Amino acid sequence: MTQREWQVLGLIYSGYSNEQIAGELEVAATTIKTHIRNLYQKLGVAHRQAAVQHAQKLLKMMGYGV
């Protein structure tokens, strides 16, 4: 995944909406939708909750208690 996709995943994990992510990263909401679509494909997930669960697994594997 790209650095930006990791940023987007982190913000999704933190509960941000697409619009909030766009504001935080100072990009258009359509750009965020593209990043999300790409990261879903790379993670092999189909929806936001599955992406959050995947992020939780990654954090746990890296030794962060979640």
TrEMBL record:
Record-annotated HTH luxR-type domain positions: 1-59
Pfam family, one: GerE
InterPro entries xref list: Sig_transdc_resp-reg_C-effctor, Tscrpt_reg_LuxR_C, WH-like_DNA-bd_sf
Keywords (A to Z) from UniProt: DNA-binding, Transcription, Transcription regulation
Source organism superkingdom: Bacteria
A molecular function (GO) term: DNA binding
PROSITE patterns linked to this entry: HTH_LUXR_1, HTH_LUXR_2
Record carries keyword rRNA processing: no
Annotated GO biological process: regulation of DNA-templated transcription
Region forming the signal peptide: none
Protein name, per record: HTH luxR-type domain-containing protein
Source species taxonomy: Bacteria, Pseudomonadati, Pseudomonadota, Alphaproteobacteria, Hyphomicrobiales
